[in-house]
Hints:
The protein is α/β, with parallel strands linked by helices. 31% of the residues lie in helices and 26% in strands. The strands form 3 sheets. Strands 3, 4, 5, 6, 7, 14 and 15 form a 7-stranded mixed β-sheet that branches. A 6-stranded parallel β-sheet has the order 10-9-8-11-12-13.
Amino acid sequence: MNPTTLNHTATTFQRDNRMKAIVYTQYGSPDVLHQAEVPKPIPRENEVLIKVYAVGLNAADWRMMRADPFFVRFFAGMLKPKNQILGADIAGTVEAVGSNVKRLQPGDAVYGDLSGDGMGGLAEYVCAPEESIAPKPMPLSFKEAATVPMAAMAALQGLRDHGQIQSGQKVLIHGASGGVGSFAVQIAKALGGIVTAVCSTSKMDQARLLGADHVLDYTKEDFAQNGETYDLILAANGDRSLSDYLGALTPTGRYIMAGGSMKQMFQAILLGSLKSKKDGKTIKDFTAKPKQADLNFITELIEAGKIKPILDKQYPFSETPDAMRYLDQGHAKGKIIVTVSET
C-alpha cells in the first residue's frame, strides 16, 4: 500500500470514529452549549450503540446545564460537568451491540431514558445498557418516541407506585399541560381514575383531548378553594403551598410531588412524614427511575391507543441552545425535541 493510500485510510478511520455532539464544559445558560466533534463511543459487553435521530428535552437537562439547584454539582461535578453531553430521552436505531446483548440487534428501532447512565443523547451516537432501552412503539415516529420516556415514566411511577391509584378514584393533575402532566392525565385515565386537569386557559382544549373528565382554568378557579376533594393529587409543576394541596385531599388522600420549586421539595421531604402522621394523609416527593419494565408497559399503552405524546416544538441539532431557551420559559404545550439526524 503506498503512502497516499495509507494517509487516506487513516483519515477515513479518524473521520469514521468521530461524531458531532452538543457539549458543555461549564455550567450556565444555554450559551454554554456548543457543537463539537468528539470520539464516537464503543459499546461495552452489555451495551448497544445507537444512532440517534431525536432527543426529547426535560427539566433535568436544564438543571444539569445550570447546576441548579447547587446540590446537582455533588453528583454532576463540583466545578464543571463530568459528563459533557446532555440529553436523556432518545430515539434511534441500534448500530452495533456488545457481546452480552441478548434481545436487540443492529437495525432495531429503539427508545429510552439515559438519565441513569450519564445522559449523552445530544450526539449522533450514544451507547446505552440494553436494560435502559426498549423497542420503539410501532405507531410512533422517532420524533414522537423521543418525547416519551422520562416524562411518561415519571407520570406512571408517581400515579401507580407512589400514588397507589385505584380505579374510580378522583385524581387531580396540577400542571396538566407540560411533559409529565400531559402523560399523567392520560395514564390516570388508563388506570381508571376520574381525572381533573389544572392548566391555563389556552391549554384547556388540549387537556380535554387527552381525556380529562374535568378541566380547571387556574386563572379563573382555585382548586384549593372550590370545596372539591381528591383521593390523589399529582403535582407535575407544583407552585402551591403544601397546605393548599393537603386541604384538597380526602382524609386518606395522597399528594405526590413530581415537580416544583426547591422550597416545595424541601417542604415535602422535611414536613411530609410529620404531617402524614398527624393528618392521616400521605405526602411524597419522588424521583423517577428508568425501568425497562415500565417503558415496556408504556409502550403497551401507546400501542393500545390509550396514551399519545404531545409534541410542542422541534429544533434542528444546530439550534439546541434555542430549544433549551424555550424550555427555560416554561410555556411549552407538551414536549420539546431536538432532531439530530433524519431517518
